[in-house]
Each structure stands twice: as C-alpha cells, then as structure tokens.
Amino acid sequence: CIYGERVGLGRSYVKLDGKLNYADWCEGIRNGRNYVSDGKSHLLDFKANGVVMGEDGSELKLSQPGTLHLTARVAARLNQTPNPSIRNRRYNEKPYWDIERARIGETREVPVEVIVNGYPAAKQNITADGKLQDVAFDVRVDRSSWVAMRILPSSHTNPIFVLVGDKPIRASKRSAEWCLKGVDQCWSQKQKFIKADEIEQAKLDYEHARQSYRNLLAECDAE
To answer: How many Å is the maximal CA-CA distance in the chain?
Structure first.
C-alpha cells in the first residue's frame, strides 16, 4: 500500500490468462507479472528484446554487453487543467503517488522512464489523454542489471533481469550497504520484543542476513 487512508490508493495490476480468481492473481504476483500504480497510469506488456516481464523468470541472457530494445504499451490520464495543490507538494506529503506530480509544466504530458539498477537511463514523453500508446527505447547495458519502466510518481513495472555473460546482478555497493544497515536497524527495534527462549536463534538468523549482504557487498564492483 502507499498509505492506509483508504483501500485502493495503491494498486497492483496482474496479467492473467483466464478469468480472475484469487489463486491465479497471487501466482501472477509471485511470477512478477504485475505493475503497481495509483490507477491513473498503466504500463502494459513490458518486454526487453522480446522477453516478457513475468514469464520464464523475467530473465534475458546476453553473451556480452549490448543494447536492449525495450517496448511497452502505456496509458495515462491527466485533467486538462493542472492542479497546483497536488503538484507543488513535497514528496513526503500526501498524496505520495499521483499522476499530477508527473505533469511536465503546464502541458498534459508525462515522462515514461527506463530504470536500470535504480537509475533513469532513458525518457520519452507521452500525452496523458487516457489512450494506449506504444513506447520503445534502445538502452545499452554493460553488466548484469535489472531493468524496469516507470512514470514517477504514478506507476512502476516489475523488473526484467538481464544477465550478461551469466554473471549475477550486483547493482551497487551502496545498495548492499543500505540493506546491511537495514538489518541492523531492524534488529535494534525488534530485539526487545523477542522471547527469551527465542533470542539466541534470532541472533543467528539476523547474523545470517548480515553475512548474506556482506557477501553481496564483496561481489559488487560498481559503487
């Protein structure tokens, strides 16, 4: 969820092959066949070199660095008139996600971005008139990376995992360090609530998590 004011503020749209049922919806989430949205923009059929997000592990294998051809069908809906009461708010003020915040100037356009390892790599503006539009990008990757598409702050796809030379994805040392610090922060807040007869196992479990991130950190080349 985005925040708990009411149901439906944050939505997860899952691609299903048949009729909607809860079990298949959950399986679609597990397989990554979904995108999140405020309901005012949509990112459909995201592909990289023909590999479909959420199918076959969302993996694209390259023997060497190269250029990805990324495609999607995109729609967004903005009112004709800007709403300054939303667009001028800071990102830490509600509504955190709203298509109005993505509006470019006084136009009815919003940017669709390609994200590689957490950073914008390409951008294309579309008119937010509610109509489905085809978008395409050519983006080079030099190492194993995760790639996604977004309209910030309105919608975001799951990633497609691009494996270059069968090497694992190691986005950055900074990401691994952030996760390691997150484990320490979680422990500092939760340890006082753990039962006495469970504390030793909890210590082992948290240390296992720390070591996992230390291992990832040691494997990272990019800062």
So the answer is: 61
